[in-house]
Predict the structure.
Amino acid sequence: MLLDFGRVVSFALSILSLYALLGSAFFVPGSHWDDRLIASFARIVLAACVCLASGILFRSSTDPQVPLLRTLPVRLFFWTLLGLALLFVTSWYLDVYYMPYFWKNLPH
């Protein structure tokens, strides 16, 4: 029972660490994209540590033969990291190449 409670708490901490990564990558007003990228690297490492620890708890409570990369928290980390990387690159591209045209054509 205590191991199941630990799984729930560690999974919630995994989600919260990924949420903090999302916040540092996109929702910091007034900062440049390269500053956000540098600030996000520390959060990526923190989220990876939390998700790997949660994956170890998930693996030990179900079947020790399951690889660590196939546990739910580790898969959630990799999918979130892939999605955030794609969104970050797309946002950076749109900000650099599309937004100057948008701001130039505003009515005065």
About this structure: The longest helix spans residues 72-104.
